[in-house]
Amino acid sequence: MSEQDAAGRIYAVMRRLVLEADDRKQHVVDALGMSYIRSRALRALAVEPIRMTELATRLVTDKPYTTLVVDDLEARGLVVREQDPDDRRCKIVKITPAGREAADTATRIITAPPTELVALPPEDLEALDRILGKLQHP
Amino acid sequence: MSEQDAAGRIYAVMRRLVLEADDRKQHVVDALGMSYIRSRALRALAVEPIRMTELATRLVTDKPYTTLVVDDLEARGLVVREQDPDDRRCKIVKITPAGREAADTATRIITAPPTELVALPPEDLEALDRILGKLQHP
DNA sequence: GGAGATAGTTGTAGTGCTATAACTGTTATA
DNA sequence: TATAACAGTTATAGCACTACAACTATCTCC
């Protein structure tokens, strides 16, 4: 029984558990009534206010499209743009209370562990937690 | 230390390991020189020949778009359409040897466990294999 | 001070995919 | 037999997002 085989099986289970998350994406889209990248923008901004260029980087998209996304979120009252006092070229995008609420909803949907995982016995969960906790953070 | 917390942490690690798979999608797209759904179609057909309608169902897309995808794959010599002998309305789509090769490439890319997982000690891998093997297949 | 780089906006074009309609040929069922 | 349903194709429109160009205002650095 090779470790490569075991790792392959382990990874297959993980992929199943997470990729059923595809309908979590759709769930987020439905719950928030916006495209998924907009929810990702909200979640990024819920962490801290950032510049437009930094937001584009975090969303792995380009500046013009980021402008479009933020325009829409601002129109929905979920974010505000403010002038950066340190550099007059720059805008800081901040999340509003309503935006934070939406971001929290999205986060809850995305991060909820599958019921079959939660249903594992405590000693199994403890072992998984311990082992997976060893993995490197890249 | 609640089980819900442990499950949340466990799931977060899984999500990280799998969602870095987003660049696996891109890797597949680059390696095969086609859109991702085309690679998914090839992988479905590599299992067994199926009807167009069944293929659309498996791809979770609609019949007109499935026609477009299969048209392209057929033009590339990766699949062939044949008349279903049991029902003259139906076509069976079969993969060609070249298509099978492309599907195998995609599968290899997608299913390869992350190196940090493979690098875990054997007893940890065995434990993960055993525990995750208990999860229900939905 | 001036040249070059950067921030964010405005604009255009294209791709992948969803959604829908309509059609011809075929099958199933009342 | 007639009607309804189904298979697959052709066609159209729209959305989300990528990619790129160009612009004005501002900043950095030689």
TrEMBL record, chains A, B:
Organism name: Streptacidiphilus jiangxiensis
Annotated signal sequence range: none
Keywords carried by this UniProt record: DNA-binding
Identification of the protein by name: DNA-binding transcriptional regulator, MarR family
Domain HTH marR-type residues, every copy: 7-137
One Gene Ontology MF term: DNA-binding transcription factor activity
KW DNA-binding (keyword) present: yes
PROSITE patterns given in the database record: HTH_MARR_2
PANTHER family per the UniProt record, alphabetical: HTH-TYPE TRANSCRIPTIONAL REPRESSOR YETL, TRANSCRIPTIONAL REGULATOR, MARR FAMILY
Keyword DNA-binding belongs to the record: yes
SUPFAM superfamilies reported in the protein's UniProt record: Winged helix' DNA-binding domain
Gene Ontology biological-process entries: response to stress
Listed InterPro entries: HTH_MarR-typ, MarR/SlyA-like, WH-like_DNA-bd_sf, WH_DNA-bd_sf
